[in-house]
Design goal:
four-stranded antiparallel β-sheet, Neuraminidase, 26 strands, 2 domains, 331 residues
């Protein structure tokens, strides 16, 4: 019996090791040369990772530098000061072979602070063109921005960061083919007014995920809504298994929606990773190692990997991490 007991212990330990070895693993690519930050814009463009602007602290104007990297390790400063000003919590994406940045916040808590409804694009990340200084939607930050059916879509956000009220939050939906002329698809979507949420496209549907408000009335959500036309919205779940949060990141990778990190007043920073094929049913990704819990970090899908860069990890971070799921990976 004693020998059998030892045999059982050895077999259980071996199974634990095999299970751990089978888990995917985040890889630390290194610390980038750009100053640690959060709330920056991010793009995948021209076979490179890009970041721009962001937040260092609330009592200075936000940075306007632009950096790129082909491997996440070696970064090149492309622009010292881009012409756009509102680079804290802007909306950004790659669309029509161009990098786009719009909205955002300027000057933190300083006098002269403001939100923006300007729209900018670049075909090389260096030269930037202002499409309009006054889009149809009101000046805002921390809204959703995505591509759907060949158009740009802006979804919600807040018109004020530190000094607003509950009416500053929006649940309007706008679309545009060129970034200049915008069509109001609905003034009040079925999902509640919010900011600091995420919006992605999977298949033929748009998804609005989580978010809420920071000040003056703090609240967080973990609901998920979807729409094919931006007008009619379906609640996929009013309470996903991941905790309600602001300032998280989301992307689509391997045919799944991914939610990574974030923050809430109750839990502080999150370091978890969740995925879903439909926005309704979610699973948590377990890995051998992971980046330190953080919020307002950049997430990329690049070279069949998920990437995490920067963010507020107490302190601000300039780390770059990547995750490759094996071809035979199954959740």
């Amino acid at each position: 019996m004693r020998l059998f007991g030892w045999f059982l212990i050895i077999m259980l330990a071996a199974n634990v090791r095999l299970g751990a070895e089978a888990l995917p693993d985040w890889k630390l690519e290194g610390n980038a040369p750009w100053q640690a930050r959060d709330s920056q814009a991010e793009w995948v463009f021209g076979d490179q990772l890009w970041i721009g602007g962001g937040w260092f602290q609330s009592y200075e104007a936000p940075p306007r530098d632009v950096w790129s990297s082909s491997d996440g390790k070696v970064w090149q400063k492309r622009v010292l000061e881009a012409p756009w000003l509102h680079s804290d919590l802007p909306m950004n994406l790659t669309f029509s072979d161009r990098m786009w940045i719009m909205g955002g916040w300027y000057k933190g808590r300083l006098p002269g602070h403001s939100a923006s409804n300007a729209v900018w694009f670049s075909a090389d990340g260096i030269q930037w063109t202002q499409v309009t200084d006054k889009a149809g939607w009101s000046p805002r930050l921390a809204g959703g921005l995505l591509e759907h059916r060949g158009r740009l879509w802006v979804l919600g956000g807040t018109e004020d960061y530190y000094f607003g009220n509950d009416t500053s939050l929006k649940n309007d939906v706008w679309s545009s083919a060129d970034g200049k002329d915008w069509k109001l698809e609905t003034a009040k979507a079925a999902w509640s007014p919010r900011a600091y949420h995420q919006a992605v496209t999977l298949g033929d549907r748009m998804y609005v995920i989580g978010g809420g408000n920071y000040v003056p009335t703090y609240h967080t959500k973990n609901d998920v809504w979807s729409s094919s036309d931006g007008v009619t919205w379906i609640c996929e779940t009013d309470a996903a298994p991941w905790a309600p949060r602001l300032w998280f990141s989301a992307s689509v990778y391997r045919g799944r929606i991914w939610v990574l990190g974030g923050w809430s007043k109750e839990k502080d920073n999150f370091g978890d990773v969740w995925h879903s094929t439909d926005g309704k049913t979610w699973q948590r990704l377990e890995t051998k190692t992971c980046w330190k819990a953080r919020h307002e970090h950049s997430v990329f899908v690049f070279k069949d990997k998920l990437w995490v860069a920067g963010g507020h990890a107490r302190p601000l971070s300039n780390e770059v991490w990547s995750l490759h799921l094996p071809d035979d990976w199954k959740p």
